[in-house]
């Protein structure tokens, strides 16, 4: 049996402002280890909202969420923080690097937080990830000295630093030109094939989606396919 | 919680807002520097005044108080032992002011290891005669050597020498008296005692204590001259002044001596209680000013931190998304505030030290304090310790509320907002 990295049972989410409104409607889904899955759907259908729930950043929902077959619904803020730190790598549409730190330190930070390895080992791994993403030459630059595509590659390196169970991306290529989008997709695909990395990527780019193992299509807060 | 990492993040955030952080730290510096300066100065004054009083006042004084006999004859009667006895119109008994068996008491006290030394004294009211005018005053008969040892009397003698008192019939008078009666060294002064004895004494010196009331009335002679003046025997002494190694023991020892020697005894603390109040008030003022300044600095930090958190929402969201808990974020901002407090506080201590050192060399002379040449400063490491503790605790509190706010930032809201 292939273990399930992620599973939801009747996941529902409401917004109350300005009026009560159900964004996600009893979503049942699961992602197995090593899968490269994409989520597509019209703008406003609830893709980002779903991803925030799955990544435990948003804990205000109904239903159940399992990570690695363990029920995480109802855990404490601290426990969620360590789940995010250790098990989930997140890549946003707008790179979101810490402007106070250089590229290398940005990549290292979640590793330092986890504290399982020494600083030297973390630095070594960070450099390795930057190298595979062809960013090692920019390691000592500050984020504001990088292009958008480069920032996104740094964010991917950061997502990888703690060897997460799953990498989630919310339109990680949405803000990039075609060339850079392809580059980022190639990186994801390489991770999936070479490292058996589980990936869950929200996208509105159909070319991107068709190249993944599985496409989840959402409409109006439901999974239709 | 990984303290080193949290502190590292705090310092990086702080560096991104270096100018504002420095402004905040300067506020703390100012508060702490003022606190150190004030406290050191005020305590310097307190100590100076304490010393002034300590130098002039015995720690324990033994004397005979004029008062009625405590055990009236009726209490001894078997017949009325069980009754409640009312006696009216009791008059004080004249035990005389002479301390009975004073030689033995002094001898005994000198053996006591808790006592530095003992000085006998005779206090007697007199009239100083100047032409037809009589000025009331006091003559203190003293043992010049013991008095000098305990109270450094020579500090206050502006003319003449304390050892001149060993001459027969010599007297050292207060400056006020000398001015009033136009007396100078070598002049003869006529003195009448309460009992009418008349004596002529030679002025050998002039004292100035700086308190007009004392300088206008008091004078010193030797014990033997005072005894002669009163027509009293060689053993006559009205006060035994005791100086202790540890002044805090004075009240207990006063009680002990009073019981043991059957005399009255008063301790330093009781006779100078109003003085203590002044010292306490000065301490309170300096602490209050320090705290107020720090509260002001605290509000500055609070504002800057609030601003910083507003600007750093993205960073907070990222930290949370990548696995830092609300608690971690809270500590990042508390530490950030405390780094400002520690840096500002340490500079405050330094500047406080510099300011006090400057005050310490400013000339300050007063007739009352002949040994003081500059403003007094009390350099005490306790104030520096209290100062830095203040700085850290104020900045901790100032940082706490913005930090709690930061810890509650919802990363989803920030990330969505883009
Ligand atoms: N904080 C919020 N309060 C109320 N409604 C919200 C909030 N955030 C998102 N929504 C609504 O929820 C729906 C789903 O949003 P989202 O998950 O961002 O869609 P997607 O990512 O698929 O474009 C949208 O209609 C959006 O307007
Ligand atoms: Mg979206």
Automatic annotation (TrEMBL), chain A:
It comes from Flavobacterium aciduliphilum. PANTHER family: ALPHA-D-RIBOSE 1-METHYLPHOSPHONATE 5-TRIPHOSPHATE SYNTHASE SUBUNIT PHNL, LIPOPROTEIN-RELEASING SYSTEM ATP-BINDING PROTEIN LOLD. Residues 6-224 form the ABC transporter domain. Pfam families: ABC_tran. Belongs to the ABC transporter superfamily. Macrolide exporter (TC 3.A.1.122) family. SUPFAM superfamilies: P-loop containing nucleoside triphosphate hydrolases. One of its GO terms (cellular component) is membrane protein complex. It comes from the Bacteria. The lineage of its organism: Bacteria, Pseudomonadati, Bacteroidota, Flavobacteriia, Flavobacteriales. This is Lipoprotein-releasing system ATP-binding protein. One of its GO terms (molecular function) is transmembrane transporter activity. Keywords: ATP-binding, Lipoprotein, Nucleotide-binding, Translocase, Transport.
Automatic annotation (TrEMBL), chain B:
Keywords: Cell membrane, Lipoprotein, Membrane, Transmembrane, Transmembrane helix. It comes from the Bacteria. Residues 21-257 form the MacB-like periplasmic core domain. GO terms for biological process: lipoprotein localization to outer membrane. Its main location: membrane. The keyword Ligase does not apply. InterPro entries: ABC3_permease_C, Lipoprotein-release_system, MacB_PCD. This is Lipoprotein-releasing system permease protein. PANTHER family: LIPOPROTEIN-RELEASING SYSTEM TRANSMEMBRANE PROTEIN LOLE. It is a multi-pass membrane protein. Residues 288-411 form the ABC3 transporter permease C-terminal domain. The chain crosses the membrane at residues 21-45, 284-310, 331-362, 382-404. It is found in: Cell membrane. GO terms for cellular component: plasma membrane protein complex. Belongs to the ABC-4 integral membrane protein family. LolC/E subfamily.
């Amino acid at each position: 049996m292939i273990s399930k990295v992620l599973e939801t049972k009747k996941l529902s989410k409401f917004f109350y402002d300005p009026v009560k409104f159900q964004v996600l409607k009893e979503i049942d889904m699961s992602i197995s280890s090593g899968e490269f899955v994409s989520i597509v759907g019209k703008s406003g259908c609830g893709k980002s909202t779903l991803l925030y729930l799955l990544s435990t950043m948003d804990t205000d929902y109904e239903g159940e969420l399992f990570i690695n077959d363990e029920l995480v619904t109802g855990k404490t803020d601290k426990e969620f923080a360590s789940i995010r730190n250790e098990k989930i790598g997140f890549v946003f549409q707008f790179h979101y690097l810490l402007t106070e730190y250089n590229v290398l330190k940005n990549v290292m930070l979640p590793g330092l937080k986890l504290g399982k390895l020494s600083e030297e080992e973390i630095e070594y791994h960070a450099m390795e990830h930057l190298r595979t993403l062809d960013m090692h030459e920019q390691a000592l630059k500050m984020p504001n000295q990088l292009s958008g595509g480069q920032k996104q590659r740094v964010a991917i390196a950061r997502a990888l630093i703690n060897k997460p169970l799953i990498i989630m991306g919310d339109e990680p290529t949405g803000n990039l030109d075609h060339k850079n989008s392809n580059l980022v997709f190639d990186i994801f695909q390489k991770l999936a094939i070479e490292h058996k990395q589980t990936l869950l990527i929200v996208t509105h780019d159909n070319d991107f989606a068709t190249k993944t193992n599985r496409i989840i299509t959402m409409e109006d807060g439901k999974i239709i396919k | 919680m990984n303290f080193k990492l949290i502190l590292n993040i705090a310092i990086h955030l702080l560096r991104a807002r270096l100018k504002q952080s420095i402004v905040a730290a300067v506020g703390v510096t100012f508060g702490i520097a003022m606190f150190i300066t004030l406290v050191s100065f005020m305590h310097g004054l307190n100590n100076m005044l304490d010393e002034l009083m300590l130098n002039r006042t015995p720690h324990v004084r033994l004397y005979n108080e004029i008062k009625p006999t405590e055990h009236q004859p009726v209490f001894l009667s078997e017949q009325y032992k069980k009754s409640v006895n009312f006696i009216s119109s009791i008059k004080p008994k004249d035990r005389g002011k002479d301390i009975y068996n004073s030689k033995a008491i002094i001898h005994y006290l000198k053996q006591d290891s808790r006592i530095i030394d003992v000085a006998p004294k005779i206090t007697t009211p007199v009239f100083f005669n100047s032409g037809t005018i009589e000025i009331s005053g006091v003559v203190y008969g003293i043992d010049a050597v013991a008095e000098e040892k305990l109270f450094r009397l020579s500090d206050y003698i502006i003319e003449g020498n304390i050892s001149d008192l060993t001459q027969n019939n010599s007297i050292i008078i207060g400056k006020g008296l000398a001015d009033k009666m136009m007396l100078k060294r070598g002049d003869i002064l006529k003195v009448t005692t309460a009992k009418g004895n008349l004596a002529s004494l030679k002025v050998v010196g002039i004292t100035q204590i700086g308190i007009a009331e004392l300088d206008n009335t008091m004078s010193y002679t030797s014990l033997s001259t005072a005894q002669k003046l009163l027509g009293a025997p060689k053993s006559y002494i009205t006060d035994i002044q005791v100086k202790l190694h540890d002044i805090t023991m004075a009240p207990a020892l006063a009680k002990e001596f009073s019981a043991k020697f059957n005399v009255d005894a008063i301790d330093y603390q009781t006779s100078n209680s109003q003085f203590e109040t002044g010292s306490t008030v000065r301490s309170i003022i300096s602490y209050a000013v320090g705290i107020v300044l720090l509260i002001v600095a605290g509000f500055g930090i609070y504002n800057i931190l609030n601003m910083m958190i507003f600007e750093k929402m993205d960073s907070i969201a990222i930290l949370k998304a990548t696995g830092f808990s609300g608690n971690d974020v809270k500590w990042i901002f508390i530490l950030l505030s405390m780094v400002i407090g520690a840096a500002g506080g340490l500079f405050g201590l330094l500047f406080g030290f510099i300011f006090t050192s400057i005050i310490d060399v400013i000339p300050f002379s007063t007739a009352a304090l002949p040994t003081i040449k500059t403003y007094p400063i009390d350099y005490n490491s306790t104030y520096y310790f209290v100062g830095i503790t203040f700085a850290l605790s104020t900045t901790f509190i100032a940082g706490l509320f913005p930090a709690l706010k930061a810890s509650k930032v919802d990363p989803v809201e920030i990330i969505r907002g883009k």
